Amino acid sequence: MINGDFYRLKHSRGFYLTESILVIFILATVLTGTLTSVSARPSSSAFFNFQMATNGWGSSQAVKLMTSMCSVLVYLTLPLLVMTTGFEFSTGSYKNLLSSGMSRVNYFISKYAVFIVVVLLPYILYYGLIFFVAGFKYHFSPLTGTFILKMGQTVLFQLLLTLGIFSVAILTMFLTFSITTAVITTIVWQFAVATLRMIFVHATWLKFFDFQGTLDTAYFAQFSTLDWGRYLLTAGGTIVICGLLTLYIFKHKNL
Fold first, then answer.
1. Is 130 within 8 Å of 65 (Cβ atoms)?
2. What is the pLDDT of residues 115-138, one digit of tens each?
3. Where are the bilayer-spanning segments (predicted)?
């Protein structure tokens, strides 16, 4: 079934349209040197100081600056999630697969594996294309060990946050068998968290659930060791709890 999901993705016009939008977005940003974001711009002084001190966009500088825009990947990953993990639910063909002998556990594991790869692919394209476009347009900056280590930590953290966002979508999808509900949930629950943060400004614990808002601050944010641990625990806990709940509900749900 995993091969079928990737075959369908590879031969889907929606996949190439989604990736084309991402490529155009990256080209427009790098070639014009204009930063935009679908969420709040990072407010850390480190981001603004780096932006003001940056004289021209080299490859490394562009990658650093555009870590502040990667929340756009959440919206560009949604169509890929629908085309792969949600395909059988949208057509009702999951019943045929399960009645033909595939266990619900194997079905869930295969779908979750595809889901992880689908989340990873846009990140590879995003940062890879930024680096090379900025390098050819401006210049290739030296790749220092510090930069590679910092970017590695940032991307892994962003991936964890993104998986946390979509783990709720997966739970909703397996709970309702509705792609529309899962997509709406993905957008609404993070918007709700961000709104609650603005209303209840003293409820500082809410920031650890604002995964999408944290995506754009991952590189420049100056978290304490304790806050790092809380972010990792919250995102990781969300993934594990939602995953276990999804599996439990799916195993006991009437088809």
1. no
2. 888 899 999 999 999 999 999 988
3. 21-40, 72-91, 112-135, 155-175, 187-208, 228-250
Q: Which of 62, 73, 58 is nearest to 126 (CA)?
A: 73
Backbone angles phi, psi at 134, to 5 degrees: -65, -35
Whole-number Å distance between alpha carbons of 91 and 111: 15
CA distance 108 to 144: 41
What does residue 221 show for φ and ψ, rounded to 5 degrees?
A: -65, 140
Interatomic CA distance for residues 127 and 107, integer angstroms: 31
| Cβ-based neighbour number of residue 213 at 10 Å | 18
Nearest to 47 by CA among 68, 26, 33, 32: 68
Predicted local confidence at residue 93, as pLDDT:
77
Query: CA distances (Å), 223 to each of 152, 198, 207, in order?
Result: 16, 20, 12
Structure tokens of 12? Answer: 């889907």
Residue closest to 87 by CA, chosen among 23, 206, 4, 154: 4
